[in-house]
Design a protein that fits this description.
Blueprint (H helix, E strand, L loop, with lengths): L2 H19 L9 H10 L5 E2 L16 E2 L6 E3 L5 H13 L5 H23 L3 H14 L2 H7 L2 H30 L11 H13 L11 H5 L6 H27 L6 H8 L20 H9 L23 H6 L15 H4 L7 H4 L6 H18 L18 H15 L3 H23 L3
Antiparallel strand pairs: 1-3, 2-3
Length: about 450
């Protein structure tokens, strides 16, 4: 089977799995559908609270009511997911199923992952195993099958990250094959410039992805660190400038003030995790958030609950203890779960990271992952309610590079296969609980 058909097979399989994982797709939180509908009506603000008996958003979180426009509110989110939904909202109005769009686009992302990792490793079996890990062994599965507002943003951002990373890889490969870099205006490499545009566009869905910029300094066309950085940087400035212009036009501010309002007036998680005297992005959040990202365990419901008399029944198998919706022995914690518990195959990146100084590709990917993760760890919220650590979607496309290289170095053998299969089974468990609990 050729590379194109492998990509098609991955896309078809992933779409089927994502759609069938959550067939009801209640789509409670569809902020971006309302945003796209507002644009089609010539407004930036959505009607809120609104309930005409058919369409209701009065229960929405993350909205910023406008004091000077009663009955309307702004959304705090970057607008790209609403742009993606525009043609569907034009056709289907507020009845558009954003979650279904997320499932289909998430499936396409799995094909884009294959396209990217097949350029990173020559061994086809290693690329297939790495792609299977991304598609079904990371929280990309959970995000795509759920598709609510916050998860749709992750899916859309991942699409453009994969496109941007692959464009940079192609720019470098073609430059090497041609024996030198093409130049535009003396310093700009055109393909790296396009890679920058695609990369910058991802930030219009998830702002934190822009901190993956170090990758495009180390990897891509241009022939030097400076030319790669300038070419990609100028490209990325185009969508980022459009985002800032959009913020000014809709809010009067360079940075959307809605998040600050929500932080001070709406967000009330576990009081042990929330510190209102701290900033939205504050280094003091790093220790507790790093604990969530790397160490947070699943819940262990009380087995002495009267409803759980079935514990110890020899007729009940181990699967029951993990899946029973009344008396599970383990259940995902809505605060999050350790990335190493939910996707242990990320550890397969270690052999590639051990050779960090020898490859620009690994250095760039590691710096991108580290920069994005660090910014997210400073954030006041870590993605509650969720399975696993959803913010990992922001750096997963970059992380797949050392994972694929690590698999290629170790070989497709029992160790690597078991790590990937374990990741897939754990994420299937998480998807089951997310749907069962109505998250």
């Amino acid at each position: 089977m050729g590379p194109v058909w492998i990509a098609v097979a991955f896309v078809a399989l992933a779409i089927a799995v994502y759609v069938l994982s959550n067939p009801a797709r209640q789509d409670f939180y569809d902020h971006f559908v309302w945003q796209a509908d507002a644009w089609l009506d010539g407004r930036a603000a959505i009607p809120f609270p609104y309930d005409d008996g058919l369409h209701d958003n009065a229960y929405f979180q993350d909205v910023y009511p406008l004091a000077d426009q009663p009955g309307f509110a702004l959304l705090p989110f970057p607008p790209l997911p609403a742009v993606v939904l525009l043609p569907f909202v034009w056709l289907y109005g507020l009845g558009t199923n954003a979650a279904l769009v997320a499932a289909v686009l998430g499936g396409i992302n799995v094909g884009l992952c294959w396209r990217m990792v097949s350029r990173v490793v020559q061994r086809r079996d290693a690329a297939i195993l790495a792609t299977a890990f991304y598609g079904f062994g990371t929280v990309a599965w959970y995000a795509a099958m759920l598709g609510s507002t916050w998860f749709l943003a992750h899916v859309v951002a991942s699409t453009f990250l994969f496109l941007g990373i692959t464009a940079a890889l192609d720019a470098e490969a073609r430059e090497a094959a041609a024996g030198g870099a093409r130049r535009l205006l003396g310093i700009i490499e055109p393909r790296q410039f396009v890679a920058g545009i695609l990369f910058g566009t991802a930030a219009l869905a998830r702002l934190t992805t822009i901190f993956g910029a170090p990758f495009f300094i180390w990897v891509g066309g241009g022939g030097s660190y400076l030319r790669r950085a300038v070419s990609a940087g100028l490209g990325a400035m185009i969508p980022v400038t459009l985002l800032l212009a959009y913020n000014i036009a809709t809010t009067g501010h360079i940075f959307n003030p809605a998040y600050e309002y929500l932080y001070r007036n709406e967000y009330r998680p576990d009081p042990t995790l929330y510190h209102p005297e701290w900033a939205i992005e504050d280094p003091r959040y790093i220790p507790q958030n790093a604990g969530i990202m790397l160490l947070w365990p699943p819940e262990t419901p009380q087995i002495d609950d009267p409803e759980c008399e079935r514990f110890g029944d020899p007729d009940l198998g181990p699967i029951w203890y993990l899946l029973d919706d009344v008396c599970p022995i383990l259940r995902p914690d809505p605060i999050g779960m350790s990335l190493l518990l939910t996707s242990p195959a990320y550890l397969l990146a270690i052999p590639a990271l051990a050779r960090l100084r020898r490859r620009r590709l690994v250095i760039g990917a590691a710096l991108a992952v580290g920069a994005i993760a660090l910014l997210n760890l400073m954030h006041f919220s870590q993605g509650w309610v969720q399975f696993g650590y959803r913010f990992s979607n922001d750096f997963a496309p970059f992380a797949m590079i050392p994972v694929a290289l690590g698999i290629a170095r170790l070989g497709v053998r029992p160790l690597t296969i078991v790590m990937v299969v374990a990741s897939i089974l754990i994420n299937a468990w998480g998807v089951y609980w997310g749907v069962t609990l109505g998250w």
